[in-house]
Specification:
Pfam family, one: NAD_kinase_C
Strand content: 35-45%
Number of domains: 2
Protein name: NAD kinase
Structural class: alpha/beta
Radius of gyration: 20 Å
Keywords: ATP-binding, Cytoplasm, Kinase, Nucleotide-binding, Transferase
Organism: Natronobacillus azotifigens
Distance between the termini: 34 Å
GO molecular function, one term: ATP binding
């Protein structure tokens, strides 16, 4: 960390936000850090706002593994990724200057659609029906047939992403330091011709999921990569696995990940 001195600030272009960002910039310079408008030149990327803005910032800057990502909330409410508050910006930069943080790496998902070059996700990938008709999907684990699913769609999430869309559909919250991926079903049909697992499935980091979309007239679902949606026609398959890439961030020494979970959900 001693060589990490150049900061890029990712934030929304709003008047109130800009005033807060100006204060963050002034404080950063006070503690000896440099600011840049080019994220490729930065070794510290501060995403200012909420968790959604953090996800957008990580995607915009290319999921860099060589820099440090920091989530800073613009309110008193913490997030899963925005575990530092703007109101404590002085103490944050003091700790950053002293290297008084524990570092943690969050794994990324690798998603290949129709055997094209893979895209990356930090939270989850979602495949959902774009019309009022169920999706039919054959699910394979490591090339072995697992189940025939029919319903509104499927979510594949990372450990850190398990608290998002996955949790809202009764998926499990997983330890962020447990390398795994989770498959969760959205409103599955349960009858004699279509009877899938019906619960979340947690797989170890070496597993590969293949989702084959049945070509029955509903073969152009919406694909979600974190908080961005894509409509792609003629989707035949998705290959999903944990990437060998990850992003590095820091734990708040005064507010742990589990403190965040308690504050947000309990």
């Amino acid at each position: 960390m001693e060589n990490f001195r150049t900061i890029y600030l990712h934030h929304k272009k709003e008047k109130q936000t800009q005033e807060q960002v100006d204060e963050i910039s002034t404080t950063a310079k006070k503690y000896g850090f440099m600011l840049t408008n080019e994220h490729k030149q930065a070794d510290i990327i501060i995403c200012f706002g909420d968790d959604g803005n953090f996800l957008h910032g990580v995607r915009k800057t290319g999921f860099r593994s060589s820099c440090l990502y920091v989530g800073m909330s613009n309110t008193d409410s913490p997030g899963i990724y925005t575990n530092f508050s703007y109101r404590n910006v002085q103490s944050f930069f003091s700790l950053l200057k002293e290297n008084s943080f524990d570092f943690v790496r969050f794994p990324l998902l690798e998603v290949s659609i129709n055997n094209e070059p893979p895209a990356l996700c930090l939270n989850e990938t979602v495949v959902r029906s774009s019309i009022i008709k169920t999706l039919a999907i054959d699910v394979y684990i490591d090339n072995h047939f697992f189940e025939h699913y029919q319903g509104d769609g499927l979510i594949v999430s990372t450990p850190s992403g398990s608290t998002g869309y996955n949790k809202s559909t009764k998926g499990a919250v997983t330890d962020p330091e447990l390398p795994c991926l989770q498959l969760t079903e959205l409103a599955p049909l349960t009858n004699k011709s279509s009877n899938s697992l019906g619960s979340s499935l947690i797989l170890n980091q070496n597993r590969t999921l293949i989702l084959e979309i049945k070509q029955d007239g509903n073969d152009h679902p919406i694909i979600g990569l974190d908080n961005e949606a894509y409509s792609i026609r003629n989707i035949q398959s998705l290959l999903v696995r944990l990437s060998n890439r990850s992003i590095q961030t820091v734990n708040n020494p005064e507010f742990s990940y589990w403190d965040n979970i308690t504050a947000i959900f309990l």
